[in-house]
User: Fold these one by one.
Assistant:
Number 1:
Amino acid sequence: MTAQQPLAYDAFVELALADSAVVGLALKGSQAHEGLTTKHSDHDLYVILADDAATDLTRFTGHRTPELDLVIVSLAGFRTAGMPGFERYALARARVVLDRLDGGIAQILADKARLDADEAFRDSREWLDAYANSLYRSVKNDRDGHSLAARLDAADSIRFLLELLFALDRRPRPYNKYLEWELARYPLPGWDTDMLLDAAAHISGTGDVPLQRHLFARVEAAARRAGHGAVLDSWGEDLDLMRPR
């Protein structure tokens, strides 16, 4: 299309529907999250082609405008997209626009939304250690009078905490933009959403040490129930600095 007539989302979908090489379309981003679209929201569309299919639609590879961003990928490439990777959450919550595989596209997206048991255990272990590390640094810096460092470490700890909590529930962590949307619809088991979000906001902004310690007590209990006691015990006596006084 010309610069004066950029390719619109609806027009491209019509082209894709008419092309038998296209086995699926998946819309991600704000357009796939009810209530989050604005006048600035574009359409981020995955175009899934049958493996080894020939199609003129490949001319749109890399197409990116304020209205429409296209990712054109083979079915094999779509299966592995975001596995692992930053794109995983976006695909986990993508909306199916076209599925010519009798539910196969939807199943691929559902698989991305659920970490397998081994992956979740491994990721949880790593995020738990990262969370404890940032928490420990924050509390120690606060003790030693390094207020800025303490707040920055506290903010880092919240990032790792969220990764941990979603991994414990075998889910990819949502991007910050979608965190409240995600938790409002799919709360984390055992966690009050409002309490968790309020604590994340307050700790990130202030580095509140008593609140960090209170939150850690809950995380420690959940982590031990999930079988991660060894990660925590590796911190030895340093755990005392993280726990409530």
Number 2:
Amino acid sequence: MTAITTDQSSPTDSRRSSVQAVDVAASVLDAMCDLRRPAQLKDIARIAGLQSAKAHRYLTSLVASGLAAQNKETGLYSLGPMALRLGVTAISNNDLIHRASESLRDLCAKHQTSGHLAIWGERGPVLIRNEHGGPPIILTVGLGATMPLLRSASGHIFLSYLPRRATEEITHQEMQMLGMDEAGVSELCAETRARGYGKTSGGLIPGLYAAAFPVFGIDGNIQCSISFISTDANFFSSERDNLDSLLNAAQKLSDAPF
């Protein structure tokens, strides 16, 4: 009599296989985060502890889902738009960040200007929300963009309120590019702290004026910055109450209990 073979896999086996697949995919994404730059397949596989063929299979699926992306010209892999969306959503669920986002929206509408919210990333302040309370101001930077420390208002805030060891490497690189010395950086930080906000006039984008305000957590450490931009050279002038209104709003965010 011929034996009849049947599929012996159980629902438990299927679930275990699915969980393992998620674990492997997570290790690939984690490796891409560790690399901090678009990377070759072999480097991602090495850090994830996978054979290149297996890593390639997972990367193909991750690209299809939007969690990863591959540059058609270079073949390098990077995190995709869905990964950015997940990250922004996770950050936005933080209570203080959520309240800062709502305040940014309300203030932009009140003053009929544009603004953005930034948090500290691996290479500087990262924009996680943009708002337009008036005619949109066209920018060359979008969500997920990393702002420079020495040429942006939000950069001045994090440079001035974070421990120097957290910004030292990036600051040194920018100093070399701009021909700036330590005395100039120290003066910039002292002026920013004395005012309570950072400001730039065309430092990053010609014709744009910006002011950024720190938002502190209950532990007194900076959590994010809210920035406002305008094409009006007088928007932040002392003759108008815009600056005081924005500064007071940022201070209330920092003082609000969790």
